[in-house]
UniProtKB/TrEMBL annotation:
<keyword id="KW-0472">Membrane</keyword>
<keyword id="KW-0812">Transmembrane</keyword>
<feature type="domain" description="EamA">
    <location>
        <begin position="162"/>
        <end position="294"/>
    </location>
</feature>
<keyword id="KW-1133">Transmembrane helix</keyword>
<dbReference type="InterPro" id="IPR000620">
    <property type="entry name" value="EamA_dom"/>
</dbReference>
<feature type="transmembrane region" description="Helical">
    <location>
        <begin position="76"/>
        <end position="94"/>
    </location>
</feature>
<dbReference type="InterPro" id="IPR050638">
    <property type="entry name" value="AA-Vitamin_Transporters"/>
</dbReference>
<dbReference type="GO" id="GO:0005886">
    <property type="term" value="C:plasma membrane"/>
</dbReference>
<feature type="transmembrane region" description="Helical">
    <location>
        <begin position="280"/>
        <end position="296"/>
    </location>
</feature>
<feature type="transmembrane region" description="Helical">
    <location>
        <begin position="162"/>
        <end position="178"/>
    </location>
</feature>
<feature type="transmembrane region" description="Helical">
    <location>
        <begin position="132"/>
        <end position="150"/>
    </location>
</feature>
<feature type="domain" description="EamA">
    <location>
        <begin position="9"/>
        <end position="148"/>
    </location>
</feature>
<keyword id="KW-1003">Cell membrane</keyword>
<feature type="transmembrane region" description="Helical">
    <location>
        <begin position="220"/>
        <end position="241"/>
    </location>
</feature>
<dbReference type="InterPro" id="IPR037185">
    <property type="entry name" value="EmrE-like"/>
</dbReference>
<feature type="transmembrane region" description="Helical">
    <location>
        <begin position="100"/>
        <end position="123"/>
    </location>
</feature>
<feature type="transmembrane region" description="Helical">
    <location>
        <begin position="190"/>
        <end position="208"/>
    </location>
</feature>
Length: 298
């Protein structure tokens, strides 16, 4: 009973991580297309502000280990690797893939990360996943593919450059979940994400200083940035990585397929998007994949 409860908690956290990320995607699209906010500036600001807020929260509640990851040389190196490759690498490569191809292609390629994670754990554990897990992964990937392409292959525009950045985002997505496990086991998920965001955001200043390409601040822009920072970054990242304490990382990654699903739903509610039958079918496939996953012995 306790195992099932922990599994359910992990699944809910992973799904929430995907939903929160989906919310931020809709808001980011609004800011970039309507308010002309630079994608690079948005990435830089949200990482620095989110990291700062998380660390202030940790220190405010009396976490005596807040600075500890910086004091051990080996752990500091691991933290920097996570910050630059895991956090910043995932953020930048995904936005770059969108820039040089399109959002549909970038999303499809990024959602290869669950497959990379499954392969990694097959090698690590030297055992194959059960059949139900494989079916769940296939249905989830198929649902994601149909949702972002609307069943039209012409929606995919894969140039060599787009393929490179898209596959890189998939790699960094898998790396982001695998690499910091030891640090998080020792210091906690929230603290490591806080430092990861802040260090990654500060590193990005070499490319995109936050004082350049500053948008015109209106109440709508400020609210949008706040939603992206708090819901789409702080809550999303914490939920996803916290879920790996209860379910295997490859399944946490699979459950983030709720991101394109939630993006579509929020686009219907707030941006006036009209869903086609193929998109409804794709959503049902994703939901069914999650149901099957809930039946797996993980």
């Amino acid at each position: 009973m306790e195992k099932r409860s922990s599994k359910l908690k992990g699944m809910i956290l992973a799904i929430l991580g995907g939903v929160f990320w989906g919310v931020s995607g809709v808001v980011a699209e609004y800011l970039m297309t309507t308010k002309h906010v630079s994608a690079s500036w948005l990435v830089a600001v949200k990482m620095i502000v989110a990291g700062f807020l998380i660390l202030m929260y940790q220190m405010g509640k009396g976490n005596k280990d807040s600075l500890s990851p910086l004091k051990n040389k080996t752990e500091l190196i691991q933290l920097i690797i996570f910050s630059v490759l895991g956090v910043l690498g995932l953020q930048y490569s995904f936005f770059k893939a969108i820039q040089v191809s399109n959002a549909a292609t970038a999303t499809i390629l990024q959602y290869l990360s669950p497959i990379l994670l499954v392969v990694y754990f097959i090698i690590e554990k030297k055992e194959l996943p059960n059949k139900l897990s494989v079916v769940s992964i296939v249905l989830s990937l198929l649902g994601t593919f149909l949702l972002v392409t609307k069943g039209n292959l012409n929606e995919l525009a894969i140039s060599p450059n787009g393929l490179f950045w898209g596959l890189l985002s998939a790699f960094f997505g898998a790396f982001y979940i695998i690499q910091p496990r030891k640090l998080m086991a020792k210091y906690g998920t929230t603290l490591i994400i806080g430092w990861g965001m802040l260090i990654g955001g500060m590193s990005f200043q070499v490319y995109q200083p936050i004082w350049q390409d500053v948008p015109t601040f209106t109440p709508g822009v400020l609210l949008g940035i706040l939603v992206i920072v708090i819901i789409g970054t702080v809550f999303s990242y914490i939920c996803l990585l916290k879920s790996t304490e209860y379910i295997p990382p490859q399944f946490s990654s699979l459950l983030t397929s709720f991101e394109p699903l939630s993006s579509a739903l929020f686009s219907v509610l707030f941006l006036g998007l009209v869903l086609k039958p193929i998109e409804i079918v794709s959503m049902l496939l994703i939901i069914f994949a999650v149901f099957l996953l809930s039946r797996c012995d993980v």
